[in-house]
Q: What sequence folds into this?
């Protein structure tokens, strides 16, 4: 015997269905789109159509000079010999095929303070070079612009640069017949919803007048005020609500953020506990929304102290040690980012690409045997709890293991054969959902 009549039950079910629809609309899950593992920032005054190719050439030169084989790569990045043997050929192939995944032309920190006349000229020249790069297929899969912040002092300058860039670029895009992906626009030092609304108004006006497709936005968290508003409320969900699907990613700015907390320069680093708090806030704000997250950059550059063609043996050794030390610093920071669920980060120098790809590939390959065994058990038992070694898995972990393979495939660390070893088919992997895979297998 029950006490809730059928009409009451229908009313309650309708309320649950509505609530679920609202939740799914707000939290659709992780995006199925590709996320680059890095973004290279370079000053706008230096940008040319061939910039990505030049960066790739310099990265390959650094690898050839300082890590020409697996043994030297293992030494530089702190890898086991076995993992280095697998990583090195993948790294060589990556730097040949696609050395730069994401490129941001920088009119902010990497550009410096210049006169209005200089920035006007650079905005126009960058647009012309960018248009040529699109026409000739020279751009990486992701690319765009970082403007100055929407502050009272710099906002007008930022909007003028954006206007000049898009107004110059737009006529050259019409009828091009092929695309190089959407233009990404990065807004630094975000501190309020009002700042984002101003940029959004300018963007929609420019897109309408120039007949441009919607430009995707990336917001940078670089201060305490970028996390909480004046009333102490979390700011990031408010920014997301303002931008909706236009929001592509949120990037963490390590050094501006730590400076905003009065942390001295000597203690400003990627793995400072204050940075871990900010990253956790970003994860909480954007989990399940499809918004990508990117970590900051290591500022120790892999630059050899000695230059020239006739160096002594001691100078060559010093160069190798300096570059390896910088690569190890990057590798340690990248591993920390990956462990915290940040699968993208900044690179500021072409030689850092060696540490970026080498560390990302190693991160996935090191975990491959255990992940393969655990996911195979899940696939075979369709989500029932399993005991694999000393790790007890539940159904939620099944999705986590699936995400591991999806990320590993996307970045190039893993192959289709690695996935096939788990018993999954390409069609099943494409669902990106362990629950869907389990349900479909049960219905066979």
A:
């Amino acid at each position: 015997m029950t006490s809730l009549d059928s009409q009451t039950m229908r009313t309650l079910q309708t309320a649950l269905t509505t609530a679920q629809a609202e939740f799914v609309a707000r939290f659709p899950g992780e995006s199925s789109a590709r996320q680059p593992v890095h973004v290279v920032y370079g000053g706008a005054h230096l940008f040319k159509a061939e910039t990505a190719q030049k960066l790739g050439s310099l990265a390959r030169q650094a690898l050839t000079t300082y890590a020409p084989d697996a043994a030297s790569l293992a030494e530089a990045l702190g890898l086991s010999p076995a993992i280095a043997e697998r990583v090195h050929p993948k790294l060589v192939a990556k730097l040949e095929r696609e050395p730069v995944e994401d490129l941001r032309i920088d009119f902010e920190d990497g550009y410096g303070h210049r006169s209005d006349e200089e920035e006007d000229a650079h905005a126009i020249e960058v647009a012309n070079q960018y248009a040529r790069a699109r026409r000739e297929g020279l751009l990486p899969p992701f690319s765009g612009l970082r403007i100055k912040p929407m502050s009272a002092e710099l906002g007008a300058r930022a909007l003028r640069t954006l206007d000049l860039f898009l107004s110059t670029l737009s006529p050259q895009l019409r009828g091009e017949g092929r695309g190089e992906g959407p233009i990404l626009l990065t807004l630094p030092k975000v501190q309020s919803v009002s700042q984002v609304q101003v940029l959004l108004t300018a963007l929609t006006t420019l897109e309408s007048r120039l007949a441009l497709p919607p430009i995707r936005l990336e917001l940078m968290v670089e201060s305490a005020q970028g996390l909480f508003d004046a009333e102490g409320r979390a700011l990031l969900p408010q920014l997301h609500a303002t931008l909706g699907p236009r929001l592509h990613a949120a990037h963490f700015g390590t050094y501006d953020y730590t400076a905003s907390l009065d942390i001295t320069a000597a203690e400003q680093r990627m793995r400072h506990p204050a940075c871990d708090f900010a990253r956790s806030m970003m994860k909480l704000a954007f989990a399940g929304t499809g918004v990508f997250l990117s970590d900051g950059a290591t500022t120790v550059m892999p630059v050899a102290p000695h230059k020239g063609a006739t160096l002594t043996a001691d100078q060559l050794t010093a160069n190798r040690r300096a570059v390896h030390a910088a690569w190890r610093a990057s590798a340690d920071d990248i591993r920390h980012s990956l462990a915290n669920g940040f699968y993208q980060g900044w690179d500021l120098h072409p030689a850092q690409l060696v540490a970026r790809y080498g560390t990302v590939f190693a991160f996935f390959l090191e975990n491959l045997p255990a992940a393969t065994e655990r996911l195979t058990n899940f696939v075979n038992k369709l989500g029932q709890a399993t005991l694999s070694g000393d790790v007890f898995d539940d159904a939620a972990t099944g999705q986590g293991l699936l995400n591991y393979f999806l990320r590993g495939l996307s970045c190039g660390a893993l192959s289709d054969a690695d996935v096939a070893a788990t018993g999954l088919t390409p069609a099943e992997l494409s669902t990106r959902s362990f629950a869907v895979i389990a349900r479909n297998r049960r219905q066979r």
User: Anything to note?
Assistant: Residues 38-365 form a domain with the TIM Barrel fold (CATH 3.20.20.360). The CA atoms of residues 121 and 164 lie 9 Å apart. The chain has two domains: 38-365, 367-442. The mean pLDDT is 92.
